[in-house]
Amino acid sequence: PQLVRLADYRPSDFLIDTVDLDVRLDPVATRVTATLKVRPNPDGREGAALVLDGDELKLVSVAIDGVPLDDDAIEAAPERLTLANPPRGPFELTVVTEIDPTANTRLMGLYRSNGAYTTQCEAEGFRRITYFLDRPDVLAVYTTRVEGPKAETPVLLSNGNLVETGDAGDGRHFAVWRDPHPKPSYLFALVAGDLGVVEDRFVTASGRDVALKVFVEHGREDRAAYAMDAIKRSMRWDEEAFGREYDLDVFMVVAVSHFNMGAMENKGLNVFNDKYVLASPETATDGDYANIEAIIAHEYFHNWTGNRITCRDWFQLCLKEGLTVFRDQEFTSDTRSRPVKRIMDARNLRASQFAEDSGPLAHPVRPEAYAEINNFYTPTVYEKGAEVIRMLKVLIGPDAFKAGMDLYFDRHDGEACTIEQFVACFAEVSGRDLGRFMLWYRQAGTPTVEIRTAYDAAAKTFAIEAAQTVPPTPGQPVKQPAVIPMVVGLVGPDGADLPLTVGGAAASPVIELTEPVTRVTFENVAARPVASLFRNFSAPVKVAADLTDDDYLFLAAHDADPFNRWQAGQTVALRNLVARVAALRASRPQPEEPRIADAIGRAFAPDETDHAYAAQVAGLPSEGDVAREIGDEVDPDAIHAARRALKRDLAARLGDAAAAAYERLSETGAYSPDAASAGRRALKIAALDLLAADGAAEGVARAKALYDGATNMTDRIMALQILSLHESDARAAALAAFEADYGDDPLLMDKWLLIQAATPLPATLDRVKALMAGPRFDIRNPNRVRSLVGAFGGNPTQFNRADGAGYAFVAETALVLDRINPQVAARILGAFKTWRALEPGRRARAEDALRGVAAAPGLSPDVGDIARRALG
Ligand code: HT7
Ligand code: ZN
Q1: What are phi and psi of 648, to 5 degrees?
Q2: In the prediction, which pLDDT does 668 show?
Q3: CB 230 within 8 A of CB 191
Q4: What is the mean pLDDT of the chain?
């Protein structure tokens, strides 16, 4: 396969200053006339041919300055339009193409779903609409005329401000939109259909009156209020936290049902997967509300980090994605609970990014080569990309970080930038050399930091020795030490932090690990402390410290850092789970650690008021966490059994406390999605989960009662999820009732599909196959595919069935889907990202399945790339 390499970047030979698009909508033959003002790029090669990108395009005509070109002046193919001898100076190029939006099942470019037209252009979808220099460093001002039938497309939208509407005859009408901000083609959008709208307004800090519009399917308008509220709060927050104002007269969000990802930040016209817009207490869970708020914020924040300042090339994807994730994390931290957000982000990073980073698909935050860019919208680029920025802030401090961001916005507004240009802003304001810090962008792999501590009672010193290693990853066998900010505290015997003194002076809690081994000795340490390491998860690393379980239990009770207080309990539980797995595999009795119940049980204390935080404390490490901790020869069944045994043990010890907490926290009053109320529900469900551990009859009865009496979707879904874990009449009845009640609501059926696909029961695979053949599934809808096949791929015991049937099913489904939607098919295949860590039997079966995919004829670049890289 053809690899695109960062090292081969060169500026475009031509620039396009303006784009006039005339789009005449038709279900199967949409005609697009693109009039482009083109000029040679002074930084490009003189005399070069003009090569425009295309993808499955049908060319109708080409003209230069109004003069049609003969066939021999052009070379036209569906994937390329070449003009060998374009004019040497500026010229106007008019290209007419025809496309079939109904046949577009890839959902890239212009497609039609449920009768409405939508576009998706990131990363390389614009070339499926017209021939273009479809690369992010070609910025143009767009004017778009959309024309369609009044009856089917009363709503006609594109980027920017509406400048004209009118009748086009024949029952058709048109709208002209002009976006004054130069943008790359990937930010272009067009939406047309018969949609309902919810409207509001926002006045920016400088007094611009902005019309806000959320477009949804008719009849769903009553589910758009939360998204609208989140838009307004995001706009205000970006003004206050980053000094960024909105810059058009209208901001629009459109919810669509067929969408490859979560949402898309098209300039002034964000297009969303409807799952991340629509919410009501009866149909959405607390998690849905939190996702909607975060994703609305994320896409809105792109207006500055991504749209006003964009990427020079797709290798720089983390420039906009890592930074925008960082910004949405900060928004959520300010809006909800900062410690809880940090814990959830760390959990998520470990589950998705650490897993990716330790397997065959590992790549740097800024990759250096790709075969298919769609496969690099990954947790590494997004979430690790955000962690790198967070480390930068820890290293240079909040004031310099703010100054660096301001400089970045001032200096690069309207440009297409690189990571080097971004980091240079922080180097400049802080006066620091950040050259070595750049390794975080270049080196893949999660560093491990091994810590040794020593207290010298006579000298009253406490020494910390930190040894870092970065593991080899595909294409990178040898690594250099990273620059790792380790934020520490020394917790004294009374539980209070001790002052930090080094060299006779007050020391910063930020220790910079820059060498293979870094040592620091704290002075005047009156009594043996317990080291609290990597407070607030100050770096995305694995930590192996010489602290004892006693030390961690002490931190779980006393650490002033809420992240590490949570982490300490998790570490003890994780150690016990690893020991339990080893015992199971050696047929030894299960090792018990009764004090885990003390750490976890704190969550259910009657005087606990921070319920959201307590819910995190009550949660055990996941099966994936245990698998990663074990590292190789992983047996998912043993891990599942060990975790179940620990839960049983905890249920026996904490049953009364959990039951009391469940009663105390049970819902009174009307549902509200706010963070405190959601936290209360989360803790209640954690208590119920423990009470129902191992299918305990009393807990199952409570879950059934909660399901039957639920007054909101959070309780209903959580009860269903708990009931689904074990075969029972209550399980079957609740699943049947849910389908009967919500069968006509696809987003609720997604939850129903997901719960069944994620169940750790031997019947799961057969049920998933049956569901796939049933009426609630549609392979053309990515949400359905993710809910059923994606969730199955994340099911630790059933995807990893010892007989290999789980692997075969996902591989076969990916091949079928590849013919319809390669991007989503490639995502489904991501289930194999940790296959090499499995025990030999499963490993061999997973490899067989992957080899079958790789050998299949006619693979898309998307699936071919994942299969080949997964096999290594
Ligand atoms: N920038 C977007 C990423 C994206 C995407 C979205 C929908 C469909 C296909 C897509 N390809 C890339 C979303 C974001 O990160 O904000
Ligand atoms: Zn994004």
Answers
A1: -60, -45
A2: 74
A3: no
A4: 98
Tell me the C-alpha distance between 811 and 163, whole Å: 49
User: Do 169 and 33 belong together in one domain?
Assistant: yes
> Which tens digit of pLDDT belongs to each residue from 300-313?
999 999 999 999 99
What is the distance in A from the centroid of ligand 2 to the CA of 321? 5
Residues 751 and 853 in one domain: yes
Residue 637, in any domain of the structure: no
Residue of 187, 264, 827 to test ligand 1 pocket, by largest number of atoms within 8 Å of CB: 264
pLDDT digits (tens, 9 = 90+) for 836-851: 999 999 999 999 999 9
Active site residues: 299
pLDDT lower than 50: segments of the chain:
none
- CA–centroid distance, residue 325 to ligand 2 (Å): 7
Q: What is the pLDDT of residues 584-599, one digit of tens each?
A: 999 999 999 999 999 9
Give the CATH number for residue 460: 2.60.40.1840
Which atom of ligand 1 is nearest the CA belonging to 306? 1
Sheet holding 74-77, edge to edge: 50-53, 80-83, 74-77
pLDDT at position 1 is 79
Residue 221 lies in a domain: yes
Residue-level pLDDT at 800: 99
- Reply yes or no: is the peptide bond before residue 123 cis, omega within 30 of 0: yes
Does 674 fall in a domain?
Answer: no
Domain boundary among 278, 300, 324: 278
- Residue identified by tokens 């330790």 is 358
User: What's the predicted TM-score (pTM) here?
Assistant: 0.99
- Full domain range(s) for residue 534: 448-539
Query: Is the CB of 261 inside a 6 Å radius of any atom of ligand 1?
Result: yes
Determine if ligand 1 sits within 6 Å of the CB of residue 264.
yes
User: According to DSSP H, which parts of 586-622 are helical?
Assistant: 595-601, 611-618
Closest residue by Cα to atom 3, ligand 1, is 264
168 closest CA partner among 22, 6, 47: 22
Same domain, 153 and 214: yes
333 and 262 fall within a common domain: no
Residues 88 and 183 in one domain: yes
Report whether 423 contacts 400 (CB < 8 A).
no
Most ligand 1 atoms within 8 A of CB, residue of 266, 373, 377, 382 to mutate: 377
Pick the residue whose CA is nearest to atom 15 on ligand 1. 321
How many angstroms separate the alpha carbon of residue 323 from the centre of ligand 2?
9
